[in-house]
Every structure is written in C-alpha cells, then in structure tokens.
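Bug report (template v2)

What were you trying to do?
Predict the complex of my protein with magnesium ion.

What happened?
Run completed; filing so the output is reviewed.

Input:
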Amino acid sequence: MLEDKNQQRTSLAELGEFGLINHITKYFKTENLSTIKAIGDDAAVLDASEKQTLVTTDLLIEGVHFDLSYMPLKHLGYKAVVTNLSDVYAMNGVAEQITVSLAVSNRFSLEAIEELYAGIQLACETYNVDLIGGDTTSSTKGMLISITAIGKVIKDEAVYRNTAKETDLIVVTGDLGAAYLGLQVLEREKQVFKVDPNNQPDLENYTYLIERQLKPEARKDVAGLLKELEIKPTSMIDVSDGLSSELFHICTQSKVGCKVYEDKLPLDPQVISACEEFELDSTMVALSGGEDYELLFTVAIADFDKIKGNPHFSIIGHVTPENQGLQLITRAGQEIGLKAQGWNSLDRQD
Ligand code: ADP
Ligand code: MG
C-alpha cells in the first residue's frame, strides 16, 4: 500500500556497527541542562538536581506491536518515542532524555534506519527530549525497538495510580477510540491491497483516525493546563490499553469503584461514522480501543467548577466505594459491570 520511496539501498554490513551508530546519531543535538554527557562514552551522564527522576521503558517487536506494511518507519520512530513520553506525562512529570535500543535484521537498509531515526528525531524536537544513548545489534528476523524515557518531577508531585479517593471526579483528555478505528481502516486497506496492488485507497474520510494510529501525540500540555486551573489530580494514568483497562488499574490500586457514563465518553465525529460503517459499538471502541495516549485522571469534587466545560477535558464519571465495583451507566440509565477489556456486550439490554 505504501510505496517504498527509498530507491537507494545501502547494506548495514557495509557500515558496521560503529559506522551505523555514528551515522544515525550525528544529527541529534541535546537541549536539556540535565544532559551532561549524551552519546559517545560508555554511559550517559545526567544531572540529578533536587527533583525526582522518572524512568519508563517500552519494548516493541515487529509483527507483535507494529506492522511495517502500513506503518512507515518514520512514523514508527515517532510513535515509539511518543508512547514512552506519555508514561512520563502520566506521572505529572517532564520528559528530558531517551535511550533507543535497536535490533535489526539484514532485511533493513541504512536508508530504512535513517527513516526510523528521522521519526525519532522529530519526536525529540517536538517534545524537547535528548537522545542520550542506546544499543545497536543485529537480529535474525525483523526489528525490535526498545526505548527508555527519563523525566523529572518536582519532589512529591508525582501523581500515582493508587491515590484516587471516593467521590473524586473522573476526567479524560481529548477523545477516545480513534486510533483503534485507524488500525481497522489500515488493516482493511492492507487486505484490499493484497488482492489488487493497483487499488489506490481512498482514506479521506478517515484522516483523523489514521493520524491517531500512525502519528499519535502525547499530552505534554496537560500538566500546564491543570496548573493554570490550580488543580492537582489525585491519581493519573495514560490511556494506552483502553479506557476500561486503565479504569481497572486506577480502581484496583486505589481500592475504589467507579461509575462512568456512556453519554459522557468523548468521541470524534469520524469515530461515530466509522463505527457505523464497521458495525462496531462506539462505546465499546471508546472503552476497549486503546492507543489513544490521552490522560485519565481523578480530581477532588471541589474542583468541579474549575474543570467543567473546559474543551480539553471531559468529566466522564466519578469514583465510588470499592464494593460498588466498576459500572458503566448506559444512555438508557442501565448499570453494566465494566470488564478489564471493555464491557460484556451480551449483558446489554437497551
Ligand atoms: P558499548 O560498547 O559501551 O555498549 P556502543 O558501541 O554500543 O557502546 O555505543 C556507543 C555509543 O553510542 C554509546 O554512547 C551508546 O549509548 C550509543 N548508541 C549505541 N546504539 C545507539 C542507538 N541505536 N541509538 C542511540 N545511541 C546509541
Ligand atoms: Mg552497546
């Protein structure tokens, strides 16, 4: 579906490991004062300061976490960084450095790795993080990328998953479900392409969905937005596996239950129309889709006036005592128990 624009093909063996590392890292500059020494020595050196350090890692494996038949390498590099940074922002922190470890088979050319690093670099510039190191090795099959993000948070201002309180409001940023539908669209086009490689996909009605799948953004802005409103969340998590699964993490760790209202779930119009087309329930998609990289957090009920009507935030429900469990209140007013992976549609009566 996506044509290979790289006509040139330089084999990685020609460069060797050190040649490759030098080549892919030479255009990276460091910007953060805490980066004392980046790439080039046995280890990077960071200034510790009086803040607390956040560290988070993700491992992505070709064929499991990404499919290069519709994921351009530049987007893959960008997304791999962004998904890590999202975890730092979900702790109420600021991301400052990343390391990138890469295993590639000889199927990949230098130009392919350059594309991957162009995406990594764009994400570094966009989010103001420094690439400070990594490791490079060969794999017998496919590509593996592991990224570690390092961030800072003011002492005792980290926001955890286990501190939601009964009666808190539950808030989510942005909208939900679009990245999952973007994946459905891309999977469908891949099947069409397999049958007829000359078929040019018409993706105009799905631009937002595809962008959310191929070029997600992390909510770096939310910490600042909340500070302006003088709100400190009582608990927070990023929406990577799906709203329902994240609600389970917060509720289980905080020993509380929740009520979430179906009619409050934020959906983009493209999500609603694509759900009709794919015959999917938009509530199911919002709850279980995943890869939204929005932030889900709880705030004290006293903050209601500060947050209501804010276009960045949707109040989708509230925290309840633990023994009430996790409930979805449908548009018809019915209570349905949430499952870690969405909800059981067979329970639904309306
Ligand atoms: P060592 O042998 O000490 O592990 P390497 O030769 O693997 O060192 O790496 C040399 C330098 O290049 C180190 O600073 C390392 O962090 C950095 N580096 C290696 N691979 C990558 C990569 N894929 N991306 C970014 N930096 C890398
Ligand atoms: Mg090494």
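What did the reviewer find?
The chain has two domains: 13-153, 169-347. Residues 135 surround magnesium ion (ligand 2) (CB under 6 Å).
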